[in-house]
Amino acid sequence: MRRIPGIAALLACAGLWLAASAQAQKTTLLIYTALETDQLKAYQEGFNKAYPDIDLKWVRDSTGVITAKLLAEKGNPQADVVMGVAASSLALLDGQGMLIPYAPLNLDGIMSQYRDKKNPPAWFGMDVWGATVCFNTVEAQKKNIPKPETWKDLTKPAYKGQIVMPNPASSGTGFFDVTAWLSLWGDKDGKGDGWKYMDALHENIAQYTHSGSKPCNMAAAGEFVVGISFEYRANTNKAKGAPIDLIVYCYLTGQMLPRFESYSQSLRMWYPARDFLAFLQLRGRGELTFGRWLRSVLARPFVLPNASVTDPWPAVWALWAGLRQAAGHPARMLRRAIAQDS
After folding, report:
1. What is the pTM for the complete model shown?
2. What are the tens digits of pLDDT across the range 273-295?
3. Distance of CA 246 to CAs 231, 236, 239, 323, Å?
4. Is 84 left (phi over 0), alpha (psi -120 to 50) or beta?
5. Domain range 13-127, CATH class
């Protein structure tokens, strides 16, 4: 399951520049974020290269804590920027009149379901992430615990006391899990199968954690067999050599999806027109050369929205069928006109 509106009920992350004034003296921006600590360095370095006269100060915590802090400070705002916080929280802040609309350069490249509907938007998405189970294969073998093939397998007696998950009251990841299960199996005013599933799962939960990362960290360390987390932390722990399998379940059936080894094997969707327009804007500001843009395009395998370079036939066939249909309309109209005159 991924954090996508209409599928898992939540957009994964969203970011918003609230205010930034260009001043001659050194300026400090205070950023509230729920991004992982090891993700912040890349943003810090990239920003400092473009704006060396601005210092960034980070306040990092889980989504629920950041949201509560912002609401508590409504009368005396402290943060300049809110970044990497769930869109549901940003929509709440927007409803309180706390956000200043801002349109990034590549706004046209952000699909409408991943940003605020207003123009300019009060918030916009920066990435999407998905629920992932971190399954410690070594500990599972010691305890003779099978790999859970579906979400509902986690309610079986074999997993009692072996599961750790984030607390939905403080963790955006935990909140996402809850909304996803309710989307899968139903709410029905608190009496649906989604709630029944969570009641059964609760019987097997050993611990609820403050953050979405910690369950996977604990599973990776062998403290528990199963950690309900998200794919970024799962992949980073796997890359460090942790004996875990990454399990991602289908959002429609709750069953396990085919295993993948790394992101380097995945394809990305490339929108040439949007990407090129964004490049032109960045080049106009002196932030990106044509060579660097081209290298970024060729850095990983990609597919086009309606065609694949390695398998173009489906797109060619669809184009041919469309042309035949378009060409057939005038012919049919002419035949009908002749028939009416005869």
Report:
1. 0.65
2. 777 887 887 788 777 788 888 88
3. 8, 11, 11, 44
4. left
5. alpha beta
